[in-house]
Each structure stands twice: as structure tokens, then as C-alpha cells.
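Supplementary Methods. Inverse-folding protocol.

Structures were first reduced to a C-alpha cell string of length 315. This string, shown here, constituted the complete conditioning input.
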């Protein structure tokens, strides 16, 4: 099978500092039965948005097929997201899935492509990371908690980068102490939502969940809590801060957590300040919830992002 690199918008003068993974096409079904078909998703574009809002050198790694909508590639290019990490696989479709949304915000994903396509297009290896990306300051990736691909995460860390991890979903079975420690300590940053954290360490208040994750090996924790914001903790310094969600008109929360993770990672890498990183994440998430799918290309949003950041920092 031939795998080619997709024509890229990359520039040799722009180093790639932040990299994320995975692109799929979402067909969204809302609780009222309305649909939004052919939406750019998969977590990677949403994370890249959160990164690109604050940084210029952002790359995306994934496999794609001949059927990738032109509008998807256009959005990436117009947003200034580098696409040399997109591997074009002839005669193999782009990963695609139904996303069924419930009234309570719960999402059920139903794949529309065979399992071998998912494995082929979304498989992550260092060989699939372009050389220009291997000098990045930081990487973010989603993982299955039972099978987090520790060897790949280790390879990224050996490049000297900061690695941020979020679970794709709640765990489907209890993890052993060894498995839990390996997952939580794999990257420097671990960012679950409330349900994902409870599936890993049991139910409890946010600070209880954070302490259990620290005891199991986590270093920097960004516990995402939807409309109430996020609880951020640094194990080494003991610092904890609450980051409120940015007040805005909420239309669809899909991808907000990914955008938060992207913004948080850039904020941490650029400033080393826990609260500033959390605010970067909250501002990025606020743009994702204002429409179905991704916001308009990033360059037009920079001024508004800075305005929201300044307002949030004053509270």
C-alpha cells in the first residue's frame, strides 16, 4: 500500500512548536434529531485550534483518504495549521463516525468505517511524525486508558518535549495499580474530565480526585469540569487553582475539552504559570462551544482571545 504526504501549507521559516494527533469526520446527531454532517473532528483539529489560538507553529498528524472534504483541508490551511503531518493513503477512506449527542451532554460514537481503516489511519508511530515536528516543544494526544500506547508516549518524551495526555473516554474496566501509575505518569500533563477521572480513581470531590491521581503518579493535572471550569494542580509545587469557564453563548460543547487541552499546553510551555495556562485553555474552549463544529479561522480571533484572556485574568 502506498502512503503519501498530503500537499502542505508548511513554511521552512516557521518551526513547528506544538503537535497534536488524529483527524476524523464527524456526522453529528443532536438530541432533537437534527444533524450536522461532514464536520471536521477527531479531537486533533480541535486541539490544534486551542494551540493555534496562542501559538504560530502548530502541526497535525493523522492518516487521511481521498474522501477528505476539501472544506476540512481549507479550514486547516486558513487557520495556519501545518498539514505535512497528514498522510494521504490511496484507496483507504478517512476515518468517519456518527456522534450521537444526548440531552445531558453525553456522547456516543459509532464508527462508519471498518476497524482496519481506523487502525491504519489513526495509528501513531514516530515514523509517522515528520522530521520537522520532532523538534516540537510539546505534543498532545488522546489515549484509550486501558491501552495508552506507552511506547509512543515514551518516544515523544525522549525527544525532549512536554507531553500532554487526555483520555478518549472513561475506562471500560478497573485499572490495576501498575496500569494506573503507568497511565498517569506517562506524560507531564494529564487532563481528564470529571467522569473520566472518577472512572480511574473512584467518585469524589474534585480535590479528592486530584489527590488520588497525584498519589498514583500524576504531575500536572487539569481536571476539566464543563460549565464550572477546571481545577488545575501541580504536584511538585503543591499549587492548585480553579479556572472558571468563560461566559459565552453555548451552542455545542463538542470539542471544547480538546481545545482546552491545546490551549493549556501552549500556556504551560510558554509561561510555566499554572493559572495562565488554565486561562489559555478556558479561552480556547469558549470559542469551541459557540457553534457546531470549528470556529472561523484563527487569525481573525486573536484579538478577541486576548480580550477574553484579560477579562478572565481580572476576576
Amino acid at each position: 500500500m502506498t502512503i503519501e504526504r498530503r500537499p502542505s501549507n508548511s513554511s521552512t521559516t516557521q518551526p513547528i512548536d506544538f503537535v497534536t494527533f488524529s483527524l476524523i469526520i464527524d456526522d453529528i446527531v443532536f438530541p432533537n434529531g437534527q444533524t450536522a454532517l461532514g464536520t471536521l473532528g477527531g479531537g486533533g483539529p480541535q486541539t490544534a485550534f486551542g494551540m493555534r489560538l496562542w501559538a504560530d507553529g502548530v502541526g497535525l498528524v493523522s492518516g487521511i483518504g481521498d474522501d477528505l472534504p476539501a472544506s476540512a483541508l481549507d479550514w486547516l490551511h486558513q487557520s495556519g495549521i501545518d498539514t505535512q503531518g497528514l498522510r494521504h493513503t490511496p484507496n483507504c477512506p478517512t476515518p468517519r463516525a456518527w456522534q450521537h449527542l444526548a440531552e445531558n451532554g453525553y456522547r456516543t460514537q459509532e464508527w462508519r468505517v471498518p476497524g482496519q481503516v481506523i487502525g491504519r489511519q489513526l495509528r501513531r508511530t514516530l515514523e509517522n511524525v515528520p522530521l520537522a515536528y520532532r523538534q516540537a516543544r510539546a505534543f498532545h494526544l488522546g489515549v484509550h486508558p486501558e491501552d495508552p500506547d506507552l511506547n509512543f508516549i515514551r518516544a515523544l518524551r525522549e525527544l525532549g518535549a512536554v507531553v500532554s495526555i487526555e483520555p478518549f473516554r472513561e475506562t471500560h474496566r478497573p485499572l490495576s495499580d501498575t496500569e494506573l501509575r503507568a497511565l498517569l505518569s506517562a506524560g507531564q500533563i494529564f487532563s481528564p474530565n470529571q467522569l473520566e477521572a472518577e472512572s480511574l480513581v473512584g467518585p469524589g470531590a474534585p480535590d479528592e480526585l486530584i489527590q488520588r491521581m497525584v498519589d498514583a503518579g500524576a504531575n500536572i493535572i487539569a481536571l476539566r469540569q464543563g460549565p464550572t471550569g477546571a481545577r488545575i494542580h501541580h504536584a511538585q509545587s503543591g499549587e492548585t487553582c480553579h479556572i472558571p469557564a468563560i461566559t459565552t453563548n453555548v451552542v455545542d460543547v463538542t470539542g471544547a475539552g480538546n481545545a482546552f487541552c491545546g490551549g493549556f499546553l501552549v500556556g504551560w510551555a510558554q509561561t510555566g504559570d499554572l493559572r495562565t495556562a488554565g486561562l489559555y485553555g478556558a479561552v480556547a474552549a469558549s470559542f469551541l462551544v459557540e457553534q457546531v463544529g470549528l470556529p472561523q479561522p484563527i487569525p481573525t480571533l486573536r484579538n478577541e482571545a486576548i480580550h477574553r484572556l484579560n477579562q478572565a485574568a481580572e476576576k
